[in-house]
Specification:
147 residues, mainly beta, Immunoglobulin-like, five-stranded mixed β-sheet, four-stranded antiparallel β-sheet, 1 helix, 11 strands, Lamin_tail_dom
Length: 147
């Protein structure tokens, strides 16, 4: 009698789930220019050279009404009505005074917001939920941080 040998290969497949990449926040802090050029004399030009830039990371426009930006001390800017940030577009929040537009809005302060040595910027949505933050400690020769 002939015996047929049947070889059965057992193949085990391991599926390893890779850690999920955190999705970019809808509104992301991309730059803080915390030390405006020249002496800090509180001129409007100097105040406006201090700013934070935000990026809409989505493929849709976002109405920024009610969104806030604040520093660690608690100075808070709240976006008003009619600020629509287009998809993949940036907007710069300047510390001084000026006329709001599509590329820049103004805090309308007469004093600086961002500390020259270290600080943290926070962005919150209209419900008050944290969306993004960026901290910095000044390094020699740098007046800004890219987040």
């Amino acid at each position: 009698m002939r015996h047929a040998l049947t070889a059965v290969a057992a193949v085990t497949v391991f599926c390893v789930a890779l850690p999920a990449q955190a999705a970019a926040p809808a509104i992301q802090i991309v730059k803080i220019y915390y030390d405006s050029p020249g002496a800090d004399l509180r001129s409007n030009g100097s105040l406006n050279a201090e700013y934070v830039t935000l990026l809409n990371t989505t493929k849709r426009a976002i109405d920024l009404e009610g969104w806030t930006v604040r520093d660690k001390t608690g100075y808070t800017y709240e976006f008003g009505p009619d600020v629509l940030l287009g998809p993949k577009k940036r907007i710069t929040l300047r510390s001084g005074q000026g006329g709001d537009g599509t590329a820049s809005v103004y805090w309308n302060r007469k004093q600086y917001v961002w500390n020259n040595d270290q600080d943290t910027a926070y962005v919150r949505n209209p419900a008050g939920r944290p969306v993004d933050s960026c901290s910095y400690k000044a390094s020699t020769g740098s007046a800004y941080v890219t987040c």
